[in-house]
TrEMBL record:
GO cellular component: cytoplasm; ribonucleoprotein complex; ribosome
Keywords of this entry: Ribonucleoprotein, Ribosomal protein
Region (Disordered): 62-81
Protein name as catalogued: Ribosomal protein S15
Species whose genome carries this gene: Lentinula guzmanii
Family recorded in the similarity comment: Belongs to the universal ribosomal protein uS15 family.
Amino acid sequence: EESKWDKCYLAQILVNEAELSSPPQMTSIELPVGTVQLPSQMGFGVTDTDAEKLFRRLPELSLHTKGSNNGSENEPFAGERENIKANTFAKVLNLRNADSDGIAYENKRRIIVAFSTLENQFDPGRTEVQGAVPTINNCHPHIPIRNLGNHFPRDLGNRLGLRKLVHHRAKILRYLRHKSNERYETLLEQLGLERESVEGEFIV
């Protein structure tokens, strides 16, 4: 059962411990304010286009604005300060430094991208996306929701919420089965789920 989850498509695209604990990979970019070290993976959905604006255009604009307002002779270290700010901001956006909310955001973003279509590459409303998102748990993203009861057997307070989450996912998957059995079977395999988890009774 565990190996089925470990090998499924969804488990492969989520942020995992190995990804966060591996040696950091940084990319150096030369800017007018100096060298900035950018992480290979950024959190909070920061794209390459966003990074271009944040680390190339924004420091230049800030430096130009300060120079215009105060005069370059009054800001001899303005470029150095902008460089420090840019490098500090890059560390904040590094996925390795993200908290649980940041990792949950990144996981949801990856799911939306992975389960969308080529025609609409970011489609959070697609049925496959809606079925995949509840399968991960924001607090313990490395544990699929079907196994949370085993990891926290005495946490009775959250069992009702967990049961509702499983039933909600099952309703989405049953809707997909009614709409397209081929897409339904494909999604079950991608999520590492058995038919019984959708069509049978739930034991949570």
